[in-house]
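## tool: complex_structure
## caller: assistant
## args:
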Amino acid sequence: MRQAGTYSGIVSGGISGKTGPHLLPLARIKKIMKRSGEEVKMISGESPIVFSKACELFIKELTQRSWMVTIKGKTRTLSKEDVASAVMATDLFDFLVNLVSDSGGTHL
Amino acid sequence: MSDNIGINLDREGLEYNFAAPAGGVASGEDGIIKEQDQLLPIANVGRIMKQILPPNAKISKEAKETMQECVSEFISFVTGEASDKCHKEKRKTVNGDDICCALATLGFDNFADHLKRYLHRYREQEGERGSLNRAAGNHEEKEETSNYGSAAVQSTPLKSNGVERRVSALARPF
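## result:
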């Protein structure tokens, strides 16, 4: 498993070096933000920090919903299909529908 | 020579990962290759997933990869909305408030509330640090900023316990 990104991400991700280590690399978040559109030019220093937290909340929410699907099947391994099911079942995650069905999807 | 004969690797855009190490490049069957620098690291993502699951839970590697892609899509989606708002208001810089508003607009109301408090605390801390640095030269503050790199590396192997304490001080668990 690639672990190198964990350290290099946090060390290099110190846009504002004052808030201490985050769970997610700030520089990487910033890169993804910039890729989202042509008009995204300037990003304040606090934005990746806010996103770091937002992504954490998002991951936890989607994971929790996926797990609800997993345990119905009486297994203890959260699979990609469980994530896809959780996305399909949640209106809030409509923006992910194409993403999960493209990568998954001969299950429907 | 054309590649029409036999192997259609380039044409289809599929099966591209003949050289990809496991977990190196997450390629979907639709031929889109997601480069690792457009995804958050799988180790970090996996760690956050584990936090919310019971101890006996297992997560397949594909599930983590899917989650990586979903998070990147989430960031793009919300940033797009935040950036649209800035554009309409003729501002050039996307800031934390824009992200909170975008989250609320897109239906992530509970995230937005949580993050507004988080952002408020962060700004307060930044303000405090600023005034402490201006005051009698607080050694702790200086150490934190100047040794940021090493401090971060040291605390990370401790499974982010420091982060957890700080984070839970800022906001209730989700």
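## assistant note: The first strand of chain B starts at residue 26 and ends at 27. Chain B has eight helices and four strands. Handing back to user.
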